[in-house]
Amino acid sequence: MRYFKAVYYKTPASSCPVFKFLKCLNDGDRAKVYVHIEDKLEQFGNEAGRRLFEDIYELKIKAEQGEARILYFLDDGCAVLLEGFIKKSKKTPADKIFNAINRKKEYLRNRGR
């Protein structure tokens, strides 16, 4: 079994979208999301989530506030966490997928620096 290290994507301004999302959750939901990241995502990688677009995956977590989602991709043994949100409809919002795609491109462009 392969272990994946969770890496929280940071914007060029050093903001972390997933941390920002986690701060908005209540303590119980925040703990659930962290446990899911550590127990499921880091252990199973892409098998922990559902493929949304190309190599962008969606990790689902049932929370009091609704269905929490973390969008991520795998890169060289790392699960790079790109976007977090509470899902309010059946479909994943297009802007969230678009953000994840752009953040992935930016991450890959800057990873060697």
Would you kindly provide a written description of the structure presented here, covering whatever features stand out?
The protein has 113 residues and is of the alpha+beta class. It has one domain (5-111): YaeB-like fold. Helix content is 38%, strand content 32%. The chain contains three helices and five strands. It has helices at 17-24, 27-44, 94-110, and strands at 5-8, 50-53, 56-63, 66-75, 78-87. The protein has a five-stranded mixed beta sheet. Strand 2 (50-53) and strand 3 (56-63) form a beta hairpin. The longest helix is centred in the first third of the chain and has 18 residues, at 27-44. It starts with a strand and ends with a helix.
Task: Describe the global form.
Answer: globular
Category by helix and strand content: alpha+beta
CATH superfamily: RelE-like
Question: What's the structural domain tally?
Answer: 1
Count the DSSP helices: 3
Task: Give the end-to-end Cα distance, rounded to a whole number of Å.
Answer: 30 Å
**Structural Rg:** 13 Å
**Overall mean pLDDT:** 88
CATH architecture type: 2-Layer Sandwich
User: Portion of residues in helices?
Assistant: 25-40%
Order of H and E elements? EHHEEEEH
Main beta sheet: strand number and arrangement?
5 strands, mixed
- Order of adjacent strands in the largest pleated sheet: 1-5-4-3-2
CATH class: Alpha Beta
How much of the residues is beta strand, in percent?
A: 25-35%
Annotation, overall tally of beta strands? 5
CATH fold naming: YaeB-like fold
| Low-confidence segments | none
